[in-house]
Specification:
The protein has 372 residues and is α/β, with parallel strands linked by helices. It has 2 domains: 188 residues, Rossmann fold, CATH 3.40.50.2000; 179 residues, Rossmann fold (3-Layer(aba) Sandwich). Helix content is 44%, strand content 15%. It is built from 16 helices and 13 strands. The chain is globular, with a radius of gyration of 21 Å. The mean pLDDT is 95.
């Protein structure tokens, strides 16, 4: 089969949808080489996916398509897909172009989450309207929907009325860099470069309201009899002021470390050196940081209520993301009980195997073949 992919994010986004797109394309090429995989993107100038063969990348052909790249992805791409004899098109980031059915091209769309529907106050009205149109339209027009978690599957059924028989839950793995164990000396050196000393709790994620870091800080402040520090890694937003205010109010300036520019090659050292990974985001579509922690052998504290219990499985403890006392109680267990942390670490390493690239690639190819 010749399978085409919406690969804009693979070549343009460092995190999130970009990571997912790169993971899928790498997994398919590495584990299911029996098909031809073509990546469609408006441009490729950020060197985020240099490992993908240039001969399999497709760009807008005409001047109009190049100038109107957004419209090319929305409608004009279909003509190019037909000329390229694409049998199946997979929209990796919540949308597919118009006209696939009339062109005789079967399609799959991956829906990552409906956070903008569950937490509408965090999004601008115009953004919600655009997302709703794209996501709903894609689900209606596609032959099959891939949901990255069972939580997303349930949301699609409840909020958009998507037929359950049309949805296939297929998970994802994280960047392979998190699966490589570093030497103790290298971990210590990298941590020291970021000013991290002694035992610590790690949290990685954009510093934004949905990620709930201010409640994690408040829960951390309630811990007793410990010498841990809390390290928050993430891109800052306007929410950073609330985080800093919380730190100052609780007089934790010497116990909480904020890091905004940790490079991806350095992140595994932080994950592996941490005693606990805490991720109490209010709502997620899957929770890749949890998977990164499990690969690192680090015990997890995550939030109840969305998909994080799917991602972490038996590798973590779980708390109500709105209840500071509950978060602190679970965190206290992890901070004080080394045996518990080791038990969760072992269980997490086993649980995370179901997210392997080989396993995911086989599921995707079986889905494609069922549509062919």
């Amino acid at each position: 089969m010749r399978i085409g992919f919406d690969a804009k994010r693979a070549f343009a986004n460092k995190t999130g949808l970009g990571n997912y797109s790169r993971f899928v394309l790498d997994a398919l090429r590495g584990h299911e080489p029996g098909h031809e995989y073509l990546a469609y993107t408006p441009k490729n100038n950020r060197h985020l996916f240099d490992g993908f063969p240039s001969g399999s990348i497709r760009y807008p052909k005409g001047i109009i398509d190049q100038k109107l790249s957004a419209y090319w992805r929305y409608a004009l791409m279909t003509r190019q897909l037909r000329d390229d004899r694409i049998g199946i098109y997979h929209g990796l980031s919540n949308e597919i172009p118009q006209g696939l059915q009339s062109a005789g091209i079967r399609s799959v769309v991956t829906i990552h989450d409906l956070i903008f529907e569950r937490l509408p106050h965090l999004f601008k009205p115009i953004d919600r309207a655009i997302y709703r149109h794209k996501f709903k339209s894609a689900c209606q027009r596609t032959d099959s929907v891939v949901a990255v978690s069972d939580q997303t599957r349930r949301d699609l059924i409840e909020l958009y009325g998507v037929d359950n028989a049309k949805i296939k839950v297929i998970y994802q793995d994280c960047n392979p860099v998190f699966q490589q164990q570093l030497a103790l000396a290298e971990r210590n050196h990298i941590c020291a470069d970021y000013g991290i000393k002694g035992p610590f709790i790690l949290c990685v994620g954009t510093l934004e309201e949905r990620k709930n870091q201010h409640r994690l800080i408040e829960a951390f402040a309630q811990l007793k009899d410990h010498d841990f520090k809390l390290v928050l890694v993430g891109k800052p937003t306007g929410y950073l002021s609330k985080i800093k205010e919380t730190i100052q109010r609780l007089k934790l300036e010497d116990r909480v470390l904020l890091l905004h520019n940790v490079s991806t090659p350095h992140l595994p050292a932080l994950y592996q050196a941490a005693e606990v990974f805490a991720y109490i985001s209010i709502y997620e579509g899957f929770g890749i940081p949890i998977v990164e922690a499990l690969h690192s052998g680090t015990a997890v504290l995550a939030a109840k209520g969305s998909c994080l219990e799917e991602a972490g499985g038996p590798g973590g403890l779980y708390a109500d993301p709105y209840q500071i006392e509950n978060i602190s109680e679970q965190l206290q267990k992890l901070v004080t009980d080394v045996h518990l942390r080791n038990t969760l670490s072992e269980a997490g390493r086993e649980h995370v195997q179901q997210f392997s690239g080989k396993h995911i690639a086989r599921q995707l190819v079986q889905l494609y073949e069922s549509l062919n």
